[in-house]
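1st attempt posting a full record on here, be nice pls
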Amino acid sequence: MRPGFLDFVKSVLFGFGIVSVSHVIFTIFSQTIPSTVIGFFRDVSAAFILMVVFAFAFTWFLKARPHNRPKRYAVIVFDVFGNQTEITGLRTDFKNHDVAWSFMKQYKNDYPLHNFAMVSDAPNSEKKTIFRYI
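the predicted structure (as tokens):
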């Protein structure tokens, strides 16, 4: 086919309105519909991701409850045989976890043949909970 003939066919088809209709159909199926569908799926995927983020945050919030920290800590002394004993002159009641731990480490250095346990009364339990043991 010659290039002049192709231009003639286009001009004839354009005269009958066929080229403009095909151009509209081509524009609808190549640009309008894909851009609408892609935009829709982009919005749906963004909403899905946002929903997953909120679901994760909600489950994390339910699991991350505030911990009931004890108000008082005690240091218990054990001898070489594992029996609970008392050493006179040792401070055994504390209001702070870090202070009790610091005193336990010092006691372990001063009395190497004894073991020490930091315990606290749990609010809802009869048994004492051991936090640290050296």
